[in-house]
From TrEMBL:
Gene3D superfamilies: 3.40.50.2300. It comes from the Bacteria. InterPro entries: ABC_transpt-TYRBP-like (IPR007487). It comes from Sedimenticola thiotaurini. This is ABC transporter substrate-binding protein.
Length: 339
């Protein structure tokens, strides 16, 4: 009887011993799981396409990462934080977007080259262009007065109203404003006159379309102005003209309001501008808003929300102008714009 019981428990040739194969399979599965790489997170994937490698791009992207760090659009989903995956134009990412488009929740372009490259392709993923000039909006099919949609931008330029509001804050007793426009900024003429008039300014606008005539146009407009507002037009304001413009304004004792910190260092009395970190902070705000929106819509193209003011006290003193501090001017500008 015992022999029969023992014989019945003995596996036939080629048959695994009962229980051994189950344990082996379990151990093998555990070993494979340990060897596999960690599973990708469940959070939204954001593709960042850069037009090159520069300090400006790096500073902006570092600011974006800091702004979305720890943000979770869906707390019910494990590992729901968004992930930025950065690719350059030379990585071949554009050629793969047709097959990989569904992998991305949003595409962020950095710089005008990346924006143009994306514009030339039919992409179904929402695109947020950053660090592009306002003058490129039409070329990229963007309308600042547009509605929410699948394409938007954060411009690098300052809104005209903000630049004009700076003038009464630093020269409240002077009202004649000179503005020299070129081909890129010519479309701003009507807005400059309208917004300037609302701020109590007497706006003198002169247009120039020939680089050889910039010097003459500057001298003429300085003779009729108390302040010269510089707008970013490459024909008018560039490395070949800036020295002569600053010298002419200094000799005419007419302060220049620039559009970058570099212009203040070159002799402008003041400027309002946005740093790469400022733009990155705004971009992170828009990403958070986009991911939290069930419709996944982007707002209309926008100017940078955050900005800095810089003042050249040495030039102001030489011109006999007493200016408030840059921090004071910035606080007052922020108050004018509201929350």
């Amino acid at each position: 009887m015992n022999r029969a019981r023992a014989a019945s428990n003995t596996p036939a040739p080629g048959q695994a011993r009962p229980g051994v194969s189950d344990r082996a399979r379990t151990l093998l599965l555990l070993l494979l799981l340990l060897l596999l790489p960690p599973l990708a997170g469940a959070g939204p994937r954001i593709l960042v396409v850069t037009g090159g490698d520069s300090d400006v791009y790096r500073q902006m992207l570092d600011s974006v990462r800091a702004g979305i760090d720890g943000f979770c659009p869906d707390v019910a989903t494990p590992d729901c934080a968004p992930r930025l995956i950065e690719k350059g134009l030379d990585d071949g990412i554009l050629e793969r977007l047709g097959q990989e488009g569904e992998r991305w929740s949003l595409i962020v372009t950095v710089g005008i080259e990346a924006a143009r490259a994306l514009q030339a392709r039919e992409i179904r993923v929402p695109v947020l262009n950053t660090l592009i000039p306002r003058s490129a909006a039409a070329e990229l099919g963007l309308s600042p007065a547009g509605e929410e949609g699948s394409r938007s931008a954060v411009f690098i330029d300052q809104p005209l109203r903000r630049q004009l509001q700076l003038i009464p804050l630093i020269r409240p007793e002077r009202h004649r404003l000179g503005v020299l426009l070129g081909p890129t900024t010519r479309d701003s003429a009507a807005a400059v006159r309208l917004d300037g008039r609302e701020l109590g300014l007497q706006v003198q606008v002169r247009e120039v379309d020939d680089g050889d005539k910039v010097g003459q146009a500057v001298r003429r407009i300085l003779s009729r102005s108390d302040v010269l507002l510089a707008l970013p037009d490459p024909l008018v304001y560039n490395r070949w003209t800036i020295v002569n413009i600053m010298l002419s304004s200094y000799h005419s004792r007419v302060p220049v309001i620039g559009f970058s910190a570099a212009y203040v260092r070159s002799g402008a009395v003041a400027a309002v501008y946005s740093t790469p970190e400022d733009v990155g902070r705004h971009v992170s705000d828009l990403i958070r808003r986009f991911l939290a929106d069930p419709r996944r819509r982007l707002p209309a193209p926008q100017y940078p929300r955050y900005f800095h003011v810089r003042i050249n006290t040495q030039v102001a003193h030489s011109l006999g102008i007493e200016l408030p501090s840059a921090d004071d001017v910035q606080r007052r500008l922020e108050a004018l714009e509201g929350p």
